[in-house]
Amino acid sequence: MSFPLLTATAALPAVGAIATAAVPAARRAAAKWLALFFSLATLVLAVVVLVRFDPDGDRYQLTESRAWIADFGVRYELGVDGIGVALIALTALLIPFIILAGWHDADPLETKSSRWRPTQGFFALILAVEAMVIISFEATDVFLFYIFFEAMLIPMYFLIGGFGDRAHAGSDEKASAQRSYAAVKFLLYNLVGGLIMLAAVIGLYVVAGNFSLQEIAEARANGSLDMATNTERLLFLGFFFAFAVKAPLWPLHTWLPNAMGEATAPVAVLITAVVDKVGTFAMLRFCLQLFPEASKWATPVILVLALISIIYGALLAVGQRDIKRLVAYASISHFGFIILGIFAMTSQGQSGATLYMVNHGLSTAALMLVAGFLISRRGSRLIADYGGVQKVAPVLAGTFLVGGLATLSLPGLAPFVSEFLVLVGVFARYPAVGIIATLGIVLAALYTLVLYQRTMTGPVKPEVSAMPDLRVRELAVVAPLIALLIGLGVYPKPLTELVNPAVKHTMSDVQKKDPQPEVEAAK
Amino acid sequence: MSATAVHNLWTMAAADPIDKIDAPKIEYGQLAPTLIVIGAAVIGVLIEAFVPRKSRYYAQLFVSVVALAAAFAAVVALASGGYGTTKARIAAMGAIAVDGPALFLQGTILLAGLVAIFTFAERRLDPEAHGNRIDSFVAQAGAVPGSPGEQAATKAGFTTTEVFPLALFAIGGMLVFPSANDLLTLFIALEVFSLPLYLLCALARRKRLMSQEAAVKYFLLGAFASAFTLFGIALIYGYAGSVSYGTIAKVVDGTLTTVDPALAGTMGNDALLLIGAAMIVMGLLFKVGAVPFHMWTPDVYQGAPTPVTGFMAAATKVAAFGALLRLLYVVLPGLRWDWRPVMWGIAVITMLGGAIVAITQTDIKRLLAYSSIAHAGFILAGVVATTEEGVSSVLFYLGAYSFVTIGAFAVVTLVRDAGGEATHLSKWAGLGRRSPLVAAVFAVFLLAFAGIPLTSGFSGKFAVFKAAAEGGAGALVVVGVLSSAIAAFFYIRVIVLMFFSEPKADGPTVAVPSPLTMTAIGVGVAVTLVLGVAPQYFLDLAGQAGVFVR
């Protein structure tokens, strides 16, 4: 048996989490370096996966399969397609930056108890989330996926509820109450989604008799597994509901602004750039493959919901006074685009959606992490508390601008490519939807530029006049992200080549062909 | 009855010479687990009578642990001898069934009992009183609370070592309960395990009045439930002319029509069958703690000494569900179109009722009591499946659940303030800051209760829901996941309280337990994680044990 590369990629951060948690209370710095080391080592493994993966080869590669819980029909089955590889790479790439950006976020204010080890806990939890996210991208067994899809809520919950911004305005007690409210809201929304999915997972087993994605998808394709129309639709809805909560899709999105607002900036990035991607990824992998007919049946409603997400998220982002909540609403708008791309059922749309997942991860990480640096300097999340920062901290302002421009999909930066592909893909099949979605871009320009204008330009506010510029550690976080945004914006080919074959497979699962241009069809 | 009938009886008895009566044939080997435990209980009583007070504790602990371990070894030997599968049989003149479910449940009860005995024996949580180590139990049960007599007993360092034989008697009854193969054995087993439990509930060292109140409530309601059961047994006898499970089942099926000419008038009367069966099931549902027979649970769980609560919550549930399964699957399968809808309804209201009422609780023991009600509902969902998978899923769930429960209650005993255990939830605020390890362990148990993946709670829940869905109870699964979501809310609330709230200045301290309680908690955590990550071996075990003998 060859080396289990995928298992190793998921297990390494898990080992790192345990090791970090075990560091003695006094050796706080050691815990940080250890966590960083493990996240970088995971990145190396992810790169190996990327290199070993052949985009034109089999659909699932580097597969592993072991017996696990035979009674439940569950096997430990891993395998990656191009989409999975891209998202694993994104996850492994972002985690070191998240760790670096949150370097001081979990330093204890005072060392009251020698047994209380928040720092170790913080970094261990981040690595635990990484491990679970990576294995969710790898799992080709529905049950295995479900287990980690659910289990990752627990470390996430502690990250949101246990570690807030130091610098939050108002009393400590109020902040801590808001934080635990946000954490509980996050957990309950996702848990309810997950439990409804559990009913559907059990239903799938009753219908199909096993949990293997490949086996079920094959049986569906060659007609040996017939589902009654209603059964398929109910099961689809069960799965989709959970993913729509996670993604999040309007009207199930309300936990995200709370969670991202109250969590520290690195954790907010972890939520929106990494964990939420599991939701959209799972729509592509599980909803479309397992329930192609029901997916097509539900498409109109989902497209409408995605459109509402795009416009509603963008409108609310325009009206936000809180920087982090603004980014959260912007993310809701972007997730609308991703879901739109997936359910447009065109290859451009789905390629675009996959690229969008990666690019949104990079651009949100850049914007949000710089916003986090800004907030930690001034001690406030309110936009109105800032002004004229570009005069005092030009590098900070500049990187903030690049992150913002990436968020509004400026041509030349990576998100432009994906947003364009999504819109083209949608337009090919549903022109009206495409036109309305374009409004989202206009609004994105509005909220990003207004945010920049209010915080960075204008007269220097007295409170920010002594604001230091980005430090070396902070630059080390932001610079590579911006380089990637520009690089993938100018030359997205490697990414599209990685993703396209996988998208073709998904398209053939739902038995959809790209609509032909009218001229050709007329011939 | 007419005079001739009496006369007939008389002459028949006289006609039979006395030496024709066959000696009952008892398969001692197959009954060994029960016999060992009951024998040890009797030895425990003798220890109380003859061993000096100073050495009783050690003698009792030793006897209990050895007996439970030996009984467990006997169960394992029987199971590996094939008595769980191919050699399943009915022993002791038709009174006891030795089969897969019986052996599996007996094994579970014995292990849970062993772990619970460790928590009974804990003597390091309270500071020493008058130079004597004290446990969770009252110095002298007979003394009036707060009286000089009680103070004198405490000062003299008395301890109620009777708890060990009492627990052994209870375990002995519980071993018979799920394996009882006729209604009279069932009833006797019910009383044998209930009476010691009533007593144990009254023996708390602290908050004695509450403890006694709990015991009286439990006793009165339990006596009602027993009376119902007994009345039901009488009616069933009138219907079938027999108390033996096999015979009743045949009469229900219609394969057997006459047993006793004297009962010709009532035999086969469906009213007797339905009312009788309902009354027996009611008695069992009372022990299980299913809504609407759950009223005693919160009060008794709260008032009883916490180690007893843990033991009761785990082992009683296992025994009672075992008896319920056997009754429904062996005696009344012919009646399943009648009892399934009822059980459906009870499962639904038990799941929802337990979960919803738990939200408003402010005492950790009451919270766990309502949570145990909700869990009874989940298990009932597996009972309703009426398939072999249903039986094995229930067996697995019971095994998983009991260790989580004992572990959780053992953690509750550790969190203490000046008044003993600090069970009010507000006192648990910030526990995660002060004792991260204890809080983390308790969080693991709570997550298992909530059914989060990678814990035994998830495997168990998945097993019963899967069985229910395959058994055609899909709607029950939907109700199940919804109440899981509700239940998750209050488990999470405790976690929030422990980890995200600021510790209070006058908060409780966490006592450092002896290796006994540590073992109990450690076993709980280990079982929770092992059954969560790699449950296959135990699912196989439960799967092989899914067939009843008739």
From TrEMBL, chain A:
Taxonomy, superkingdom: Bacteria
Domain (NADH:quinone oxidoreductase/Mrp antiporter transmembrane) ranges: 139-442
Keyword Transmembrane: yes
Membrane topology: Multi-pass membrane protein
InterPro entries in the record: NADH_Q_OxRdtase_chainM/4 (IPR010227), NADH_UbQ_OxRdtase (IPR003918), ND/Mrp_TM (IPR001750)
Keyword Transmembrane helix: yes
Pfam families listed in its UniProt record: Proton_antipo_M (PF00361)
Record-given protein name: Putative NADH-quinone oxidoreductase subunit M
Annotated source species: Streptomyces aurantiacus JA 4570
Taxonomic path: Bacteria, Bacillati, Actinomycetota, Actinomycetes, Kitasatosporales
PANTHER family named in the record: NADH-UBIQUINONE OXIDOREDUCTASE CHAIN 4
